[in-house]
Amino acid sequence: MPKGINKPCSTLKGSRFILSGADVPPQTYLPQLLLTFAEVEFECQPSDGQKVDSTPPDAHLKHVREDGSTFELEDVKVITRYLARLLDLDGESAEEDAQLDMVLALLEKILRQWIAEVYSKPNPRDTDVFEKFLKNVTPALRKMEEHLVKNESNGHFIRNRITYLDIAYHEVVAFFLDTYPKSVGTILRPSELPATFKLYECFRVHPRLSRQVSTGDPWRYHRCSRVLGLRDVGFLVRDIRRSLKFYTNNFGFVCAKKLMAPQSHLGYVEFDLPNTTAVLSLLSQEGQPEHQPGKMTQGPFSLIVKDVRSMLKKEMTGNGVKVHNGPEEHSWGTLARILDPDNNVITIIDIKPGFE
Question: What positions does the domain VOC occupy (predicted)?
Answer without folding.
Answer: 229-351
